[in-house]
Design brief:
The protein is of the alpha/beta class. The chain folds into two domains: 4-12 and 257-381, Aspartate Aminotransferase, domain 1; 16-255, Type I PLP-dependent aspartate aminotransferase-like (Major domain) (Aspartate Aminotransferase, domain 2). It has helices spanning 16-22, 24-27, 38-57, 71-85, 101-112, 130-136, 159-166, 229-232, 240-255, 257-278, 305-314, 334-340, 361-381, and strands at residues 4-5, 65-68, 92-96, 116-120, 141-145, 172-176, 195-199, 210-214, 282-285, 295-300, 317-318, 350-354. Strands 2-8-7-6-5-3-4 form a seven-stranded mixed beta sheet, sandwiched between helices. It has a three-stranded antiparallel beta sheet with strand order 9-10-12, covered by helices on one side. Helix 4 runs parallel beside helix 5 (101-112). The longest helix is centred in the last third of the chain and has 22 residues, at 257-278. It is globular, with a radius of gyration of 21 Å. The model has no long low-confidence stretch (mean pLDDT 95). Keywords: Iron, Iron-sulfur, Metal-binding, Pyridoxal phosphate, Transferase. Its cofactor is pyridoxal 5'-phosphate. Pfam families: Aminotran_5. It catalyses: (sulfur carrier)-H + L-cysteine = (sulfur carrier)-SH + L-alanine. Residues 4-366 form the Aminotransferase class V domain.
């Protein structure tokens, strides 16, 4: 039985082209980019080229790219970095109730340090209200951190509108774009983004590397103290093989971005069509139109998500009930709670399907049919 991986929002397989591209930088080009001899100069040249690729993907300047150990560090550097660097200007931060825990827990930590944080509510489609954001802004607001596209339900936030509002306010605009990067077209300067976080392992690159875009002129308090790497903003010898792999993954993602979107839309339509034709009870969580194409979160009415996940795994199908960062947690999805309230049946009956490299139309069809079969067996065992 061939296994089917439909949990690409948790992590994605490394593209074989990326693996091949990385090997020379572990075997031969192993120099430290800070060294002045030929080995170091070769490494520095490769690092500079990777930075240019990363910058080009979001229409930024290479000097505005800071390589990190991943999305979590990028989020932390953006939020803590701005908060500590600009605390004399104000102590108010705005975010949403549906952010990734890398953002939420960083903000909660800042509250312990005397900062005030406003957690904007989201509606049943997963979006914030622009009017609510405008009302939350004060003269003490120094940062607004709002996710580009949600990692659990796929909903896209009104990023251009937020950027326009903040263009006339002192607050910097940070967006966690970990799920959207490589899927959505991004032009940070055009839509008014000041800081943007990404992660390699979501775009078929290696784990343990990402980058933070920080607009020219923004001061950041450093989280790490040591050498002067990344123009004194992130100390530590750069993980060159991983950065090189990330740059290759970025290039590939940009080349076939539109084709991927079309394919993932088809996968989503196929899955929903199978469920509709089978007449099982289900509801889609998230925005019906303004959503990431590779994520679909579905509530199967009356079904227990844990039982469904186990049964699907036994059939060789990997899906999830939400963020991989909360795996094993007994707490319900904070995103679904924010959308529907903590008494909603959707919280205990929802599954996230996320598509990516290696998935085929045949796999989606098989997965959809297996879900239907499992639901029918579970209902029969309950005498429904």
């Amino acid at each position: 039985m061939d296994k089917i991986y439909l949990d690409h929002a948790a992590t994605s397989p490394v593209n074989p082209q990326v693996v091949d591209y990385m090997i020379p930088f572990m075997n031969d080009m192993f120099g430290n980019p800070s060294s002045i001899h030929s080995f170091g100069r070769d490494a520095r040249k490769a690092l500079d080229e990777a930075r240019e690729i990363a910058a080009h993907s979001i229409h930024a300047n290479p000097s505005e790219i800071i390589f990190t150990s991943g999305g979590t560090e990028a989020d932390n550097l953006a939020i803590l970095g701005v908060a500590m660097a600009y605390k004399k200007r104000g102590n108010h931060i705005i975010t949403t109730q549906a952010e990734h825990h890398a953002v939420l827990r960083t903000c909660q930590n800042l509250e312990k340090e005397g900062f005030e944080v406003t957690y904007l509510p989201i509606d049943e489609k997963g979006q914030i209200s622009i009017e609510t954001l405008e009302k939350a802004l004060t003269e003490k607001t120094i940062l607004v951190s709002i996710m580009y596209g949600n990692n659990e339900v796929g909903t896209l936030q009104p990023i251009p509108e937020i950027g326009k509002i903040l263009s006339s306010h002192q607050a910097f605009f940070h967006t966690d774009a970990v799920q959207a990067f490589g899927i959505e077209k991004m032009d940070v300067h055009k839509i008014g983004i000041d800081l943007l976080s990404t992660s390699s392992h979501k775009v078929n690159g290696p784990k343990g590397v990402g980058f933070l875009f920080a607009k020219k002129g923004i001061r950041l308090y450093s989280l790490l103290h040591g050498g002067e790497q990344e123009t004194k903003r992130r100390a530590g010898t750069e993980n060159l093989p991983a950065i090189i792999g990330f740059s290759k993954a970025i290039q590939i993602s940009q080349l076939n971005r539109v084709e991927k979107q079309t394919q993932y839309k088809q996968f989503k339509e196929t899955l929903l069509s199978i469920f509709e034709k089978s007449c099982i009870d289900f509801e889609v969580n998230g925005h019906p139109e303004e959503s990431l194409d590779h994520i679909v979160n579905i509530s199967f009415t009356g079904m227990n998500v844990e039982s469904m996940l186990v049964n699907l795994d036994l059939m060789g199908i990997a899906v999830s009930s939400g963020s991989a960062c909360t795996a094993g947690s007994v707490d319900p999805s904070h995103v679904l709670v924010a959308m529907y309230g903590n008494r909603s049946g959707r919280i205990s009956s929802s599954i996230r399907f996320s598509f990516g490299l290696g998935n085929t139309q045949e796999q989606i069809e098989r997965a959809g049919k297996e879900v239907v079969n499992i639901i029918e067996r579970m209902k029969k065992s309950k005498g429904i």
